[in-house]
């Protein structure tokens, strides 16, 4: 992780300065609060000095000597007003600061959300979803807590130390010098301890992100873990990450916790010196007893802010690590937003061409080399081949999830690199093997393909996808809410709903990652009928898993290691008795067995 620098904190300030009116108001009230706080020992000192003088006069037998209640009443009234103003400024400064921080964190979360939408697919391929989620939630919460709990307290601590020293120098510069020595000593100790603990706070944030990522993946695949009896392995992996988090968390907290006792030790030594020398000066008539009391109390007023800073050290350092992680995410390289050379017309034919396309995820290991393909509008192209052949990569390139290294992909003669990604993707509909639905009503999930679709269009799309009858059997029909895991409907029904969603979008080009391998024969027939209906009149790319479903494709591409090694219609490829023939016959042999 990169070293945290001043620039990072200035970037955080840019979120706060939008609300600088309330922010400055909070700071101003904090300054007043510190002034009211530092006046307390001085005011009490006046009362103690007066009482001491009155008692001394009474002991000496001075005529008319007694307690000066009128003077003391004025002092107590001033003290009460001071306390009232102190509490009021404290209340409103906190209220303003909480408002500022919450608004700033709202803006930060909004920027993170917008950033995630601009990141390339490759970022999500390389990073755990749980760790990304941790940055957007846990790390932002850590920053918010630190700002709300610590910012004003640190400012108040700095002001408290400053004003207390001023008052001490006003009363006795000699005794004040003791505190001048104490504060740098405490600062040097704190700085050294902070330097030792900071790497562990960064490690704590890192392993917390890993733990979130692992838990998210484990819960997603919990049934698979149970199926293969991998509970122990999963538990051991969790334990390994948890132990690392525990080790870094303990060391971070323990080392940062050393500040408080060390600072308290320095303060107590200073208190002893101030008390002893103060009493000696009072006995010599160089100071009043009230001022001695005030000086002793100012020692604790200096100690209290230093203790506050040390106690907040863990929160501050944790927030510092979180700030760095959040801005690291905001600094990630985005998808290149090139200048738009062309715009696709509203109605396209749907011709697609791959011209000398080469691509690799890793520059050292080329995947697709000099790939060429011409697809006419309305044709169905099936893509088959073993795992790792490049089938899904072709779709990623077609959708511009990744850009080609060389060559071009064209839609109706327009190079997709000269179009915006949004323009390219708006021409496609997708039905994937992993059906994705979100927590909403069935009509809302279908309408996701066209947000302004009418109820009639939703029903028509569901009918075309052979799912209308099933929806009608549900208690609430189209208003039935699909739960977060979409576990209250079957896999086949989810696939039919995604087909309806693609149908209502009415795209010119379709991408179908055939999704019939995990359903029964009856649902397979319904899905196949729905897919044929949606493919009618559209250019379609089908990633085929069951080769029996692509016999009627206009063109079958047989891929291996990123290259088209065979192409043609089903019967023609079988007659060649090549790679496709081997795939086809072996699949039917396996199914027969």
From TrEMBL:
Cross-referenced Pfam families: ABC_membrane, ABC_tran
Residues spanning the membrane: 21-48, 68-85, 151-169, 175-194, 252-280
Residue span(s) of domain ABC transporter: 352-586
Alphabetical list of Gene3D superfamilies matching this protein: ABC transporter type 1, transmembrane domain, P-loop containing nucleotide triphosphate hydrolases
Single Gene Ontology MF annotation: ATP binding
Domain of life from the UniProt record: Bacteria
InterPro entries named in the record: AAA+_ATPase, ABC1_TM_dom, ABC1_TM_sf, ABC_transporter-like_ATP-bd, ABC_transporter-like_CS, P-loop_NTPase, Type_1_exporter
Membrane protein topology class: Multi-pass membrane protein
Domain annotation ABC transmembrane type-1: ranges: 24-318
Keywords carried by this UniProt record: ATP-binding, Cell membrane, Membrane, Nucleotide-binding, Transmembrane, Transmembrane helix, Transport
SMART domains: AAA (SM00382)
Protein name: Abc transporter
Lineage: Bacteria, Bacillati, Bacillota, Bacilli, Lactobacillales
């Amino acid at each position: 992780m990169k070293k945290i620098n001043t620039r990072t904190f200035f970037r955080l300030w840019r979120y706060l300065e939008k609300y600088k009116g309330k922010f400055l108001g909070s700071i101003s009230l904090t300054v007043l609060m510190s002034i009211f706080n530092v006046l307390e020992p001085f005011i009490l000192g006046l009362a103690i000095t007066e009482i001491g003088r009155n008692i001394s006069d009474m002991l000496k037998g001075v005529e008319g000597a007694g307690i000066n209640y009128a003077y003391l009443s004025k002092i107590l009234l001033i003290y009460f007003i001071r306390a009232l103003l102190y509490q009021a400024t404290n209340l409103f400064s906190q209220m303003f600061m909480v408002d500022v921080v919450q608004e700033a964190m709202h803006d930060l979360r909004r920027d993170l959300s917008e950033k995630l939408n601009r990141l390339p697919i490759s970022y999500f391929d390389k990073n755990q979803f749980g760790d990304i989620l941790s940055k957007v939630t846990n790390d932002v919460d850590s920053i918010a807590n630190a700002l709300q709990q610590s910012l004003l307290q640190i400012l108040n601590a700095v002001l408290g130390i400053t004003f207390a020293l001023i008052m001490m120098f006003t009363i006795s510069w000699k005794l004040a010098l003791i505190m001048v020595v104490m504060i740098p000593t405490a600062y040097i100790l704190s700085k050294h301890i902070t330097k030792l603990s900071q790497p562990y706070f960064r490690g704590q944030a890192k392993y917390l992100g890993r733990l979130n990522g692992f838990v998210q993946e484990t819960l997603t695949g919990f049934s698979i873990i149970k199926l293969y009896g991998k509970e122990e392995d999963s538990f051991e992996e969790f334990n390994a990450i948890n132990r690392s988090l525990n080790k870094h968390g303990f060391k971070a907290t323990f080392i940062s916790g050393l500040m408080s006792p060390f600072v308290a030790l320095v303060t107590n030594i200073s208190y002893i010196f101030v008390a002893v020398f103060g009493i000696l000066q009072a006995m010599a008539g160089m100071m009043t007893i009230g001022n001695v009391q005030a000086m002793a109390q100012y020692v604790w007023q200096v100690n209290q802010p230093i203790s506050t800073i040390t106690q907040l050290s863990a929160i501050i350092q944790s927030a510092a690590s979180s700030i760095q992680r959040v801005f690291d995410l905001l600094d990630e390289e985005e998808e290149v937003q090139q200048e738009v050379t062309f715009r696709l017309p509203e109605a396209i034919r749907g011709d697609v061409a791959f011209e000398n396309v080469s691509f690799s995820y890793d520059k050292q290991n080329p995947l697709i080399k000099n790939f060429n393909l011409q697809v006419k509008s309305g044709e169905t192209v099936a893509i088959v081949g073993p795992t790792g052949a490049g089938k899904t990569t072709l779709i990623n390139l077609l959708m511009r999830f990744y850009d080609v290294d060389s060559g071009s992909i064209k839609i109706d003669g327009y190079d997709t690199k000269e179009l915006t990604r949004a323009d390219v993707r708006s021409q496609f509909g997708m039905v994937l093997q992993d059906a994705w639905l979100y927590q909403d009503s069935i009509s809302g999930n279908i309408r996701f393909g066209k947000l302004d679709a009418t109820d009639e269009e939703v029903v028509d799309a569901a009918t075309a996808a052979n799912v209308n009858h099933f929806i009608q059997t549900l208690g609430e029909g189209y208003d039935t809410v699909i739960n977060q895991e979409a576990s209250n409907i079957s896999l086949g029904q989810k696939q039919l709903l995604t087909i309806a969603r693609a149908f209502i979008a009415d795209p010119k080009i379709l991408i179908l990652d055939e999704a019939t391998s995990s359903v029964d024969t009856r649902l397979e027939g319904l899905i196949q009928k729905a897919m044929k209906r949606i493919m009618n009149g559209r250019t379609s790319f089908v990633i085929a898993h069951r080769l029996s479903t692509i016999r009627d494709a206009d063109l079958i591409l047989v891929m291996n290691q990123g290259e088209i090694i065979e192409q043609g219609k089903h019967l023609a490829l079988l007659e060649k008795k090549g790679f496709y023939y081997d795939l086809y016959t072996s699949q039917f042999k396996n199914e027969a067995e």
